[in-house]
Structure formats: structure tokens, C-alpha cells
Design goal:
This protein is mainly alpha-helical and about 210 residues long. The longest helix has about 35 residues. The chain folds into 2 domains: about 50 residues, no CATH class; about 150 residues, no CATH class. It starts with a helix and ends with a helix. It contains 8 helices and no strands. Bound molecules: zinc ion. Zinc ion binds next to helix 1 and helix 3.
Length: about 210
């Protein structure tokens, strides 16, 4: 076959886009023709590759930077909330309000912040959906564990409330629990939604499928 025809076919041959017959012809020609063989080797040499994806690399770097900023901002914000909660709790007299800020602010913010450890393992997950689902579960699980610890620490168990008010006043007990925990339950829900949506965005910025 003519060298000019083979040279036209070489790019298709490299990309695996030409027919089987053409591929055989090109392969046989290259083996027998030094000029075409040299051209083929130049085109497949790795030195040619890096000149093309310059733009995507810059795009990736910008997104990596955005992802790091998002992660840092969330860590600082949750740590800020914990600090505020601890300060408010420290300024609260012991009594009925004891533990209020710990339960309603410190615990949900701590749960969110600790669950962000999972973000360092984003590359382990198969897809960003799985990663965001697991981030949500992590936030909920850590927060619940913190609540269990807090309930022992502040000895606020529901059975004590029931023994005080009796089962006939279950509604009263429930409203008391909501009064003490309400803000914390709402904040936990908000943090879980944040955890799912923001971790999804985070994984997307890092180019996760
Ligand atoms: Zn040739």
C-alpha cells in the first residue's frame, strides 16, 4: 500500500478506529517501511501526550482549591459553633437550664465536625452518591453517640421524667423532651442535610463520578 494512504490511516490505527483489514495492512506496512514506522513511533511516543490536557489540569486545580476551601470553611464554622455552645453552657447556672446549650448546640455541631473525618476518605468510595449517603449516616451516627453520652452525663433519662409525671401525662413528658431537645433535633436534621448535600458537592469538585 501507498505510504501516503498508510500515513492517513495511522492516527485511526492508534485510536483503534479503523477496520480490522485496515489495521492489518497498516501494521504490516509499518513493519516493512522505516519511514512510516518512524512516524508511527513519533505519534505514539509519550512526549506528545501532555501538551493536550493543559486546560483540564487547570480546571481540576481550581476545583481542588474550591473543595479545600469548602472543607476548611465548614470545619471552622462547626468549630465556631462548638466554641459558642461551650461558652454559653459555661455561663449557664446549674439548675433546669444545665446542659441546655451542650445538648442543643455543642452535640449537633460536634457530630457534624467529627463526621467530616469521612471527607478525607472520599477517594475510597465508588461514587459521589455513596460518599454523600455515607456522610449523612456518619453525621447521624456520631451525633446519636454524642447524645447517648450526654444523656448519661446530664442524667436526663426519659424514665426519670416518666416516674415524676406518670404515664398518663405522656404528652406532657414529650413536650418537655421537645422543649429540652427541640433545638438540638432541628439542628441535627439541618446538619444531616448539610452533610449529604455539601459532601456531594465536595466530591463533585474533586471530579468524583
Ligand atoms: Zn511507508
Amino acid at each position: 500500500m501507498n505510504c501516503h494512504v498508510v500515513r492517513d490511516l495511522i492516527p485511526l490505527y492508534i485510536d483503534g478506529c479503523c477496520s480490522e483489514e485496515s489495521a492489518i495492512i497498516v501494521k504490516e506496512h509499518i513493519e516493512g517501511c522505516d519511514a512510516c514506522k518512524k512516524l508511527f513511533e513519533e505519534m505514539t511516543a509519550p512526549a506528545h501526550a501532555p501538551s493536550v490536557p493543559e486546560a483540564p489540569v487547570r480546571f481540576n486545580k481550581l476545583n481542588d482549591w474550591k473543595a479545600s476551601v469548602l472543607q476548611s470553611v465548614l470545619l471552622f464554622l462547626s468549630f465556631g459553633l462548638i466554641t459558642v455552645g461551650v461558652a454559653l453552657e459555661a455561663g449557664t447556672d446549674s439548675g433546669l437550664m444545665n446542659g441546655f446549650w451542650a445538648i442543643n448546640l455543642v452535640v449537633p455541631a460536634t457530630g457534624f465536625m467529627l463526621s467530616m473525618v469521612n471527607w478525607y476518605f472520599v477517594r475510597v468510595y465508588k461514587s459521589r452518591k455513596r460518599f454523600s449517603d455515607f456522610s449523612l449516616i456518619a453525621t447521624l451516627a456520631v451525633t446519636l453517640c454524642a447524645y447517648i453520652w450526654t444523656s448519661f452525663h446530664y442524667e436526663m433519662n426519659v424514665s426519670a421524667l416518666f416516674s415524676e409525671f406518670g404515664f398518663a401525662e405522656a404528652y406532657h413528658v414529650l413536650s418537655l423532651v421537645m422543649l429540652i431537645h427541640g433545638l438540638g433535633i432541628v439542628l441535627t436534621a439541618v446538619f444531616c442535610i448539610f452533610s449529604k448535600t455539601l459532601s456531594y458537592q465536595y466530591a463533585k469538585m474533586l471530579g468524583k463520578e
